[in-house]
Write a structure and sequence with these properties.
Radius of gyration of chain C: 23 Å
Largest sheet of chain C: none
Helix content of chain A: 25-40%
Number of helices of chain C: 10
Helix content of chain C: 40-55%
Oligomer: heterotrimer
Number of strands of chain A: 41
Radius of gyration of chain A: 36 Å
Shape of chain C: elongated
Strand content of chain A: 15-25%
Strand content of chain C: under 5%
Largest sheet of chain A: 7 strands, mixed
Chains: A alpha/beta, B mainly alpha, C mainly alpha
Distance between the termini of chain A: 113 Å
Structural class of chain A: alpha/beta
């Protein structure tokens, strides 16, 4: 403000006359900003107490709180019951339905447990005489295939969705067209186990007489059947009474692991491996080129290439007829046998072989020689003769013969089909629930011939290589949505019923054929095959059985039981010696041999998309998510390869590149590869997992389609990490070698030693003492006993536990990091030398220790002990410190490093369908919590609740854990240790009982019964 | 000068923490679900009307 | 002025620690509120079903509708066809019954508002309690007198454990009653 009192300055701007005149009043105004009294009368206290800053803070806080208070915190959601409750559904209680399993060709009886209409668990049907309440790992985990989101939802024509009516309207004319132009209709199927399906196929042939049925399945026992036919005149061979055999010789026969009905075989074998009561053990000799589960159980194991089996059997015949023969041999047979002088008797295995011969001699009529499905027909004929010579035919069970309903097509028939396809003589190909593009050897040329056929129809559950090569892809019902029956053993007719309505727009495969047979697309009904099955049942089974009840009652009772039993005793035929004399001689080779065998858990590729089965560790190598070439350490050194190195295997010009696994104990010239892997058209889980061993197979095989000579193998560049759940240096690393023996994790003995001194295991054991007072358990005390004599490492317990307890699939990458989530694992230990290892299996689960080291280190007390002896785990309290897993000496605690249900690796679990497989009684764990075996506490609580409801006392035998229920040999016993009459308390006090890592004084509640090997010595062979 | 560096470091740290915290709360899952073509209708589970259940528990 | 250790402790660490403690307490306090504070929660149901009429005046037994309560873990809210057992003829001109019939005919299940809820990670078993002769009113209150069902007790774990530890005082009508289980896996499995 210019202070110009000088009136001579001309003012530019003035506000008032006083200003113009420089009135002193206006000057005073210009100086003071405020009027007088404005600042004096200013009283800060009188202004409101809240500053701007404080006001804003309060505003935001109250806004936030209001927002939270706006939700009705008391709102607990809704509870929605049924509108019209189906009579048989009691929400919260499970229903059981009897049915038949479709996992392999053995058709075991199953009970499907459902909750609110959803199947959640599969168990064996106790009424079925063959499997008697047990089911294998494939049957257990096969339930995940029902909830596979990558199943086909709708019928497809050239990958476009069409309606069923349109499909039928196009196909029926195509079929009729072939009748007029004389082309063939080729129906290619897998293994037919159902007599009614066979009848449908027969009716189809009646309607379309130019149809030819071809049956091809990769895993077949054709060698054995053809041999039996030549020897005894029938394709149906009897079952073997393994439970009455004192000596068993298995020749490349994995009868305990993967051949025939191995559930039945395991049960029968274990019947002579009882330690409670008298020890009347059998003795198992195994001569094989690879390491199988049966080989792991052997008392004496001989490494023998599969090409040498023929020589071996002939040598045995030669030696044994010297001491007489129950079957008289003519001159030509004798001369054939006498050529095989005892070169084996002077080999490195001579001691074992002389034991074998002495044993077979001493046990004529009470022993059995059993050859494997993959061996050539000639070996089977020789084995049949050997059993005749020794009188072992007493052990053939003719009341239960294995039937063949539809014979497998021969190599000539399939070649003829392919030629017809190439020449355009085949109008329609129907691929009836099979995958011939994958399972037929490439040199048939099936795929290229298929492309020349105008109409290719594939009936399948999920898209596979064969349906991708065709034009019509028709989705069929999953076995749990299907009707069916099975008659694979004489005297046993089992029924299959659906427990759930078809989830997607699928149809029963037989109903599809029936629609085409009727010729009218409108004739299809939902219960088409149901009616047909009932009619066939009434015509055949009802009339045969002739019961007092009427047809409807009998049908319902048959569905309730699941099986109808008959007396069907087959005729015991006489051995045809000409078959033996005329059979081709197989010369052994000294070069490398490739032996192709069935995968334990993937089958013929059917279960490739099943995460549980892919992740179940291989019984011998403990490898998941892969197959490999299994070679001996000597061969590995020759090729200078180690595990994870890649080799190229060449057979007759075909080659396969795959990783190598060094397997101690296998024959030096045998390369064993499992097929079923390497599928290309499959869901996200199985895509490009493993290596397709079928590329090495050929339609022109010399002796057996599974054994190939003329093999070259060499190392190539590259590595492929094999995800194994166990380390592999146990035999090389001197520090850990035999640590399982020195630390007494595995304690074994021999039968001889046990007979002499039954207390040998407990001799010299020091008594442990505690510094704290021991807790007294009144009431129940849950404990488990595992009999290592019977455990074959089949993996049934592992998969049963996975299904029962909602254990997630983690994928190969996480298994490589050691983060597999299975609560139960089967440890496999080697002792001895890499060429002659002794293998011990031990299922390991949470030991529920009385002095658990995991319990007192949890900072939030999420794991503690229950008054009935269980180590509890409270998931909602766990914060994920992982101190408990650190302290566990058995390392049985699994941590959820990721939220495997959600947002994990393409979010496989995160869909509406797969989450339906979960057991509602068990918590589904999220990220960051520790989990472990709970001794199936949900089953214990349910049994307790049922006992209170029925007014009874809870007995230890009322509770059956999932693993105990699944074990086919009843190796696992569970019960109340405080009950002196229970089996588990008897086993705890048994002479052969021991605890793992007992010296730590953690007092585990899982008792192991030491394995006794039935050798001739008291000392173990180490 | 040092305090300027220190200041900058901690502000960067704080800003990135804030950004990460906000980013983790964004529902990417929800957005990807929206973009997916939802051809599937809701899965209906129904008991098969002709199945016969076992009367006695195992 | 240089900052001493005490300065840091008092000005930074102490407030921070207090803040963390207070916030975690408030968080758990707030999250457990539905169980703790919902005493008196009596929401409006989609159909004005009156227990006072059915269970009280007409003395229909609890287990006629809630069929699972003595058999299994869940008590089972009755499905609509149980209501229609009587209401296909009884008072079928009343507006609420017309609403009920419409639910039944269209096949839509009734979305009842849930009042008694034990969190999902605790597996509560009704039949064990009922078969030990514990009466419904001990936990659910005198439902026979309720027009609209109301929550009368807090459903926190403390409430359950109080009764488990001291059953004699909480259940005076039972002569012989054992102490209920206190171990975790009885409920948390």
């Amino acid at each position: 403000m210019s202070d110009s009192l000088n009136s001579s300055d001309k003012k530019e701007l003035w506000k008032s006359l006083q200003d113009y005149n420089n009135d002193p009043e206006s000057l005073k105004f210009k100086h003071n900003e405020f009027l007088e009294e404005v600042t004096e009368k200013f009283d800060p206290e009188k202004i409101s107490g809240i500053s701007r800053r404080k006001f804003l803070a309060l505003l935001s806080a109250s806004a936030a709180l209001t927002a939270t208070a706006c939700t009705n915190y008391r709102n607990k959601g809704e509870i929605i019951p049924y509108n019209n409750r189906p009579e048989e559904v009691f929400p919260g209680t499970a229903n059981y339905y009897a049915s038949t399993c479709n996992g392999c060709g053995q058709a075991c009886g199953i009970l499907i447990k459902t909750r609110e209409g959803r199947p959640i668990k599969i168990d064996g049907n106790p009424d079925h005489p063959i499997n008697q309440g047990k089911i294998c790992a494939k049957g257990q985990a096969g339930i995940l295939n029902l909830y596979d989101p990558e199943r086909l939802h709708n019928p497809l024509y050239n990958s476009k969705i069409v309606s069923w009516k349109k499909i039928d309207d196009e196909i029926i004319p195509s079929l009729n067209e072939t009748l007029t132009n004389g082309n063939e209709i080729a129906v290619v199927t897998g293994l037919i186990t159902s007599p009614t399906t066979k009848k449908v196929l027969d009716d189809f042939v009646v309607k379309y007489p130019n149809t030819k049925i071809y049956s091809h399945t990769l895993l077949n026992d054709e060698q054995r059947r053809n041999a039996w036919y030549e020897c005894y005149g029938t394709y149906d061979y009897p079952a073997v009474k393994f439970d009455e055999a004192n000596i068993i010789l298995a020749l490349d026969a994995d009868f305990l692991g993967n051949e025939g009905n191995y559930i039945e075989n395991m049960r029968k074998y274990a019947a002579k491996r009882e330690v409670v009561g008298k020890t009347d053990f059998n003795r198992l000799y195994v001569a094989e080129g690879r390491m199988s589960t049966t080989g792991m159980m052997a008392d004496y194991r001989i490494s023998l290439s599969p090409t040498k089996q023929y020589q071996f059997v002939m040598t045995l015949i030669n030696e044994l007829i010297k001491n007489g023969s129950a079957f008289s041999l003519d001159a030509s047979a004798r001369s054939k046998v006498e050529k095989f002088q005892s070169s084996f008797l002077n080999s490195s295995e001579k001691e074992k072989i002389s034991h074998l011969i002495n044993d077979l001699n001493a046990n004529r009529g009470k022993a059995i020689i059993y050859a494997g499905d993959t061996l050539p027909k000639e070996v089977h004929i020789s084995v049949n003769l050997l059993n005749e010579v020794l009188g072992n035919i007493e052990l053939y069970d003719y009341s239960s013969a294995s039937k063949s309903l539809v014979k497998q097509s021969t190599q000539q028939e399939v070649s003829k089909l392919v030629d017809s396809m190439k020449n355009g003589k085949v109008g329609v190909v129907v691929q009836f629930d099979c995958n011939p593009v994958f399972s037929l050897p490439e040199d048939y040329g099936y795929l290229s011939a298929l492309k020349k056929v105008k109409t290719v129809i594939s009936l399948t559950e999920a898209e596979n290589e064969s349906s991708a090569a065709g034009n019509y892809t028709l989705p069929i019902n999953h076995p749990f949505e299907s009707w069916g029956d099975a008659n694979v053993r004489s005297g046993v007719y089992s029924l299959q019923q659906p427990v759930i309505s078809p989830i997607f727009n699928t149809r029963q495969k037989e109903s599809i054929l029936l629609t085409w047979i009727s010729g009218d697309s409108n004739s299809y009904q939902e219960n088409f095959y149901h009616q047909y099955l009932m009619n066939n049942f009434n015509a055949t089974i009802y009339t045969k059985k002739n019961p007092l009840a009427d047809t409807k009652t009998f049908w319902y009772s048959a569905l309730n039981d699941g099986v109808v039993l008959f007396n069907e005793l087959s005729q015991r035929a006489k051995f045809n010696l000409n078959a033996f004399s005329a059979s081709k001689e197989i010369s052994s080779v000294t070069d490398y041999t490739v032996h192709l065998t069935e995968s334990y858990f993937i089958g013929d590729g059917k279960f490739s998309n099943n995460g549980w089965l892919q992740e179940t560790p291989h019984p011998v190598s403990k490898v998941t998510w892969d197959n490999y070439a299994s070679i001996s350490p000597k061969l590995a050194k020759q090729l200078s390869v180690e595990m994870n190195d890649v080799v190229e295997v060449k057979v007759n010009g075909k080659s396969l590149t795959l990783p190598v696994l060094v397997q101690p104990g296998v024959d030096h010239n045998t390369i064993n590869i499992e097929f079923g892997y390497g599928r290309t058209v499959v869901g996200n889980v199985g895509k490009d997992i493993g290596f397709n061993a079928i590329t090495l197979m050929s339609k022109n095989y010399s002796s057996s389609p599974f054994i190939y000579e003329n093999v070259s193998i060499k190392k190539v560049n590259g590595t492929h990490k094999l995800a194994s759940t166990q380390e592999h240096h146990s035999l090389d690393d001197t520090f850990v070698k035999d640590i399982h023996r020195t630390r007494k994790i595995i304690q074994e003995g021999t039968v001889e030693k046990y007979k002499k001194e039954s207390n040998f295991l407990h001799e010299g054991k020091e008594k442990l003492f505690s510094i704290t007072n021991e807790h007294q358990y009144t009431g129940h005390k849950w404990a488990m006993a595992i009999d290592l004599n019977k455990c074959t490492s089949c993996g049934g317990c592992v998969t049963a536990c996975n299904v029962e307890n909602n254990v997630p699939v983690v994928g190969k990458d996480q298994v490589l990091n050691g983060r597999e989530m299975q609560w139960m694992r089967i440890d496999r230990y080697y002792s001895g030398t890499p060429d002659e290892p002794i293998i011990s299996n031990q299922p390991m689960l949470c030991q529920h220790c009385d002095n658990a080291p995991c319990e007192n280190v949890c900072p939030v007390n999420a794991t503690n002990h229950s008054p009935d002896g269980l180590n509890q785990m409270v998931y909602n309290r766990c914060v994920g410190t992982r101190y408990c897993s650190n302290n566990c000496p058995y390392k049985v605690r699994r941590f959820n490093f990721f939220n495997f249900r959600d947002h994990f690796a393409d979010a496989y679990y995160e869909n509406d369908l797969t989450s339906l497989v979960h057991n509602p009684e068990v918590t589904v764990r999220s990220r960051g919590v520790m989990e472990k075996c709970t001794f199936c506490v949900q089953r214990i609580m349910e049994a307790r609740s049922n006992a209170i409801r029925d007014g009874k006392e809870l007995k230890g035998t009322d509770v059956v854990t999932a693993c105990q229920q699944a074990c086919p040999t009843t190796a696992i016993t569970f019960g109340d240790a405080n009950d002196p009459d229970s089996l588990v308390s008897k086993l705890r006090e048994h002479d052969l009982s021991y605890h793992v890592l007992e010296e730590l004084n953690v007092k585990p509640n899982v008792t192991y019964i030491a394995k006794l090997r039935n050798t001739h010595h008291s000392q173990e062979i180490l | 000068m040092e305090s300027m560096n220190r200041n900058k470091f901690f502000t960067t740290l704080g800003k990135s923490t804030l950004l990460l915290a906000i980013a983790s709360a964004i529902p990417f899952n929800f957005f990807s679900k929206l973009s997916k073509v939802s051809t599937e209708k809701k899965i209906k589970i129904a008991i098969h009307p002709s199945s016969v259940k076992r009367n006695n528990k195992v | 002025m240089k900052r001493t250790v005490l300065d840091y402790a008092l000005k930074i660490r102490l407030p921070l620690t207090l803040f963390v403690v207070v916030v975690s307490f408030m968080l758990t306090f707030y999250i457990s509120r539905p169980e703790r504070d919902s005493v008196g929660y009596a929401p409006e149901q989609p159909i004005k079903f009156s227990h006072k009429l059915h269970a009280g005046q007409m003395t229909i037994d609890c287990q006629y509708c809630h069929i699972g309560v003595a058999k299994e873990r869940h008590a089972i809210i009755p499905s609509v066809n149980i209501c229609m057992n009587c209401h296909t003829v009884a008072r079928k001109d009343k507006p609420e019954i017309i609403k009920l019939t419409r639910y039944y005919e269209t096949g839509v299940p009734i979305p009842w508002k849930r009042i008694y809820k034990v969190p999902e990670y605790a597996y509560f078993n009704h039949s064990v309690h009922v078969n030990k002769q514990i009466d419904c009113v001990s936990c659910h209150g005198n439902v026979k007198e309720m027009e609209v069902v109301k929550e009368v007790k807090p459903f926190t774990m403390t409430a359950c454990l109080d009764c488990h530890r001291n059953p004699h005082d909480n259940l005076p009508y039972l002569q012989k009653v054992n102490i209920g289980p206190e171990n975790c896996s009885a409920c948390h499995r």
